[in-house]
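Try it yourself: sequence plus zinc ion, in.
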Amino acid sequence: MRIPSPRARRTLGLGLAALLAPALVTGCGSADDLHRATTSMEGVRTTAAAVPPREGAAATDTSASPSAGIPSQRTAPPSGGPAPRPAGATAPAAPTATATPTASPTPTAGPSTPPQQSRVIRTTAGGSRTVALTFDDGPGPATRPILDLLAQYHAHATFCLVGDEVRRDPGAVRRILAEGHRLCDHTVDHPQPLHALPHDRQVHEIADAEDAIVRAGGPGTRVAWFRAPGGDFTAENEQIAADHGMASLGWSVDPRDWARPGTPAIVADVERHLRPGGVVLMHDGGGDRSQTVAALRDLLPWLTAQGYTFAFPAEH
Ligand SMILES: [Zn+2]
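Structure, out:
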């Protein structure tokens, strides 16, 4: 049995999921966000099918599909969307994943190894007045425009890539690397919720995506981080990632660009919630990301004017 394709990703509704089953809460990538939002805030939601290819899957889904409404709701967990976990909910620029003892190994997803504390990273390596920009669900049509903008501002970012997309556009991976950016594993086809898959399937999602990325990038390509679709981090998938040398990467600011709230809203959200050392979640894949590109066009000069320098996320 195969995982429902990204597009078909479905989000399990977890109404109170955030509170009851942290493991389920999702958060990241578009789809991610989507889900997360969906999930964490309200109850179930079935994003079914959907939209174009993958990502959007989730993400797009939302926007494109019935989910339209979601965006608003997701106000609660401040953009910071420390989402995944109940924890950081409050403080947008919250420090690392400190909290969230992912311990919540759901009954179903029994960790393959002894339970451990969640170490989801949500800060930059250097702290101080730095920011780590991260882009999920690509490569996609927006990847190159985003790379052009980053180059214009001498900014570096981290790209959380989806294995299937990498296979479609390996050249994008090479350009990302050639321009000094770094890579993150965002699974093969963005299943959600990841933790609901059997252990071996989760290993496949994480390990094969890394393989695809390394194959595209060439010998020596390093994938330092893993980001669970929807921010669905669990002790189990964090351990799988760690076994492959990757740290689990969350975020501290989530402008929910996947929901296409409008460029001004994306910009305002980042400006309002970013704190020094923060990790910003945006998307270069998963659907129409023109608002994200436009927002970046405003945010890059703003960040520079605010004295921020561009850094990478911490690795432990
Ligand atoms: Zn994603």
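One thing you can check immediately is this: The longest strand covers residues 130-138.
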